[in-house]
Amino acid sequence: MDWLIEKIAELLANSKHAVVFTGAGISAESGIPTFRGKNGLWKRFDPEEVASIRGFMRNPKAFWNFARELILKTKAKPNAGHYAIAELEKMGIVKAVITQNIDMLHQKAGSKRVLELHGSLKFVDCLDCGKTYRWDDLVDRIKRGEVACDECGSLYLKPRIVFFGEALPKEVLSEAIEEAKRSDVFIVVGSSLQVYPAASIPFIAKDSGAKLVMINADPTDKDRLFDIVLHGKAGEVLPKIVDKVKEII
Would you call 96 helix, strand, or coil by DSSP? Predict the structure, then answer.
């Protein structure tokens, strides 16, 4: 593993435009459950019922029950992997973080340029009257299972996240694609690249000449398409890479 860490560090130290792409794996190390895999959330919940736009419009309470059961039970904080990525950005090496995650842990760790492909839980909008809430201001109501608009009484309060069946935000997707095209090193951390169109972005980078690096706890069926593959936890591997970059530069 040490020689792989050194190789990745060399790529980063010599890069002009490195980009990091993160998935659920990096947040799992902060205690947030992943969706797929052996112990994934979709083993316990029906995604069509709790995380699709059709399911939400049919029964918004199902989503909020899911939110209360899972999101509020997790007092997640950034882990060493998040902080290492923020450090690389601070050093001027990483130019952007593209994430599939909605937890805002990259921002909490100090990353400044974060492109959230699937939105975030920062704001919640009433689909009927348009009133906007901050997620944090709704926490007590979510815990009580009493999520309704205090302006119009609607139950259709929707967080600004992308549900199954919804398109990714065009502006963010366009920015992410541009960052991929500009990158000379593109590092995927904690994603098995199963959800499209997000999963296509690393290969846009490759087609534009970038070196592709995969850092993931487990093997994926996309590993063969990467220039370097390192199997390990982000919180353990990324700080070592940062230390090695500092030695090189």
Answer: strand
Residue from 244, 236, 206, 239 nearest 222 by CA: 206
Distance, CA of 99 to CA of 247 (rounded, Å): 28
CA distance 58 to 205: 38
In the set 17, 82, 106, 118, the catalytic residue is 118
* Known catalytic membership, residue 118: yes
Look at residue 20 and give its three-state secondary structure.
strand
The SS3 of residue 66 is: helix
Cis-peptide, bond into residue 159, ω within 30° of zero: no
pLDDT exceeds cutoff 90 at 237: yes
For the chain, the straight-line distance linking the first and the last C-alpha, in angstroms and rounded, comes to 21
**Residue-level pLDDT at 20:** 98
SS3 at position 98: strand
Spatial distance between the Cα atoms of 35 and 24, rounded to a whole number of angstroms: 8
How far, in Å, CA of 91 to CA of 178, rounded? 21
- Give the contacts of 123 (CB within 8 A, at least 6 positions apart): 132, 133, 134, 135, 159, 160
Q: Hey, what are 221's tokens?
A: 């069926």
Q: Please state, in angstroms and rounded to a whole number, the distance separating the CA atoms of residues 114 and 118.
A: 12
Q: How far apart are CA 234 and CA 149, in angstroms?
A: 39
29 contacts 232 by C-beta, under 8 angstroms: no
Half-sphere exposure of 87 toward its Cβ, with a 13 Å CA cutoff? 16
Q: Does 197 sit behind a cis peptide bond, omega within 30 degrees of 0 on the bond before it? A: yes
pLDDT per residue as tens digits for the range 155-166: 999 999 999 999
